[in-house]
Amino acid sequence: MFTEITELVESIYLHIPFCRRRCFYCDFAIAIGGEELKTRYVEAICQEIDLTASQVAIANRQPLQTIFFGGGTPSLLDPRQILTILEVVARNFGIAAEAEISLEANPGTVTPESLQGYKSAGVNRISLGVQAFQLELLDRAGRGHDVDEIYAAAEAIALAGITNFSLDLISGLPNQDMSQWQDSLTRAIALQPTHISVYDLTIEPGTDFGKRYQAGDRPLPSEEATVDMFLLAHEQLQDAGYEHYEISNYARQGYQCRHNLVYWHNRPFYGVGMGATSYIEKCRIDRPRKMRDYFEMIDAWRDRGIVPTVLPGLPNTELLDTMMQGLRLAEGISLDRLRQNYGDALVETALNCLQSYFHKGWVKISGDRPAHLMLTIPDGWLFSNEVIADLFAALE
Questions:
Q1: How far apart are CA 41 and CA 306, in angstroms?
Q2: How many angstroms separate the Cα of 175 from the Cα of each of 136, 191, 204, 220, 222?
Q3: Which one of 277, 340, 367, 387 counts the least CB within 10 Å of its CB?
Q4: What is the C-alpha to C-alpha distance for residues 145 and 154, in angstroms, rounded to an integer?
Q5: What's the rounded Cα separation, in Å, for the pair 370 and 117?
Q6: In whole angstroms, what is the distance from residue 26 CA to residue 18 CA?
Q7: Cβ neighbours of residue 240 under 8 Å, at least 6 residues apart?
Q8: For the chain, the helix, strand and coil percentages under 3-state DSSP, each to the nearest 5
Q9: d(C-alpha 352, C-alpha 370), whole Å
Q10: Contact status, residue 132 vs residue 97, Cβ threshold 8 Å
Q11: SS3 state at 295
Q12: Calpha distance 71→258 (Å, rounded)
């Protein structure tokens, strides 16, 4: 960490690692524990918020605009614990009256009463991890809920009066076919969330799926099938009134996820909790991914003043991050901003690297003023990994 944080920061991510089980595709930092461990963890994360705030210059402690409880399954904490954490955040930084306060939840872990409790604590946005509407796919992915619990959770959200409701789906699951994907999209739209996230399955090393499958092998859908799933989602969600504003995200007007836009615009944010990452003063600071190590980090910071280590970035890391995140957005990246922040020479290097993709029709520069560099939709987004990999090679 830094002796003093002088950068203005408007967002905080709070990692709540608890899960009932690990999904077969998940490589996040999670923990499975009882009430005693949850109580200890809430105390630790509150201490970390205090310690983080102690590094921030008093003049720069401004009310936060976005707060995100991610996981794990934050809805495994009870509303009183969420309230305790938010009270510590408010005491240290303040929370803007219009702040977006999101909490991730899984079906089967919420009730109208618990959701009303979260709302009373200050939560005003729920992100529901649905993933699929077919029991066989939920079981195959290691999810801990069934289809009926999806509908019960959506009804509970409505009964609690939480109107900002996001829903997650995963495409490319083992043995998933187009009829199932069409069914999931239709059912998701019928629930009328304000936001829908659509993630293409990634096979991560060390996960259960990573031990069983290799990308491109059956029973995973073919690359052609996953492309068709992406295009179907793009078409049907837009027809249903959702703006495709980021590669994996769709929103009704006025309901883009403000917290995630902080990441995609490469703006600074605090990150607290096991496995969380902060992005402060153009540096990323990682927390330990295991519970015992996390507790030891908090003890060392609190008792001996040993702050989390800031790892130096590679040359051009900030430009790479800005381009990698910004090209995920439909609006792209302002070329004026790139030149102002990183200089003409680096920007020209990046543009020269992209020439072949301009010719393929995957990348373009808008004719608006100011001009924006952007991936085309849908072709540029479909090949975004290839484009970004070449940018990394050119700029590293």
A1: 19
A2: 9, 25, 18, 6, 10
A3: 367
A4: 13
A5: 45
A6: 13
A7: 189
A8: 45, 20, 35
A9: 20
A10: no
A11: helix
A12: 18
Task: Classify residue 193 as exposed, middle or buried by CB count within 10 Å of its CB (0-12, 13-18, 19+).
Answer: buried
Residue 339 CB-density burial (10 A; 0-12 exposed, 13-18 middle, 19+ buried): middle
Name residue 94's amino acid.
G
What's phi and psi for 188, nearest 5 deg? -60, -45
Distance (Å, rounded) from C-alpha 214 to C-alpha 200?
A: 15
User: Max Cα separation, the chain?
Assistant: 59
In angstroms, rounded to a whole number, what is the distance separating the alpha carbons of residues 127 and 118?
13
**Could you give the C-alpha distances from 274 to 14, 42, 292, 294, 324, in angstroms and in order?**
9, 11, 9, 6, 25
Write out pLDDT tens, residues 235-244.
999 999 999 9
Cβ neighbours of residue 51 under 8 Å, at least 6 residues apart? Answer: 298, 301, 302, 307
Structure tokens at 102: 């999101």
pTM tops 0.70, yes or no: yes
Measured in degrees and rounded to the nearest 5, phi and psi for residue 166 equal -105, 150
Quote the tokens at residue 53: 């705030």
What is the tens place of the pLDDT at every residue in 361-392? 999 998 777 899 999 999 999 999 999 999 88
Tell me how far apart the alpha carbons of residues 324 and 338 are, in angstroms, rounded to a whole number.
13
Helices (H), the chain: 35-54, 79-92, 112-121, 135-140, 147-159, 178-190, 208-212, 223-239, 258-264, 291-304, 317-326, 335-342, 344-353, 355-360, 379-382, 384-395
Q: How many C-beta atoms surround the C-beta of residue 224 within 10 A?
A: 8
The count of C-alpha atoms lying within 13 angstroms of the C-alpha of 18, restricted to the half-sphere facing its C-beta, is 17
268 neighbors 285 (Cβ within 8 angstroms): no
User: CA-to-CA distance for 167 and 155, rounded, in angstroms?
Assistant: 13
The first and second tokens of residue 312, run together, are: 């130096």
Backbone angles phi, psi at 276, to 5 degrees: -75, 160
Q: How far apart are CA 55 and CA 51, in angstroms?
A: 7
pLDDT < 50 stretches in the chain: none
C-alpha–C-alpha distance, residues 98 and 342, integer Å: 33
- Other CB atoms closer than 10 Å to residue 268's CB: what's the count? 17
Peptide linkage before 219 cis (omega within 30 of 0): yes
Give the residue from 272, 262, 263 showing the smallest Cα distance to 308.
272
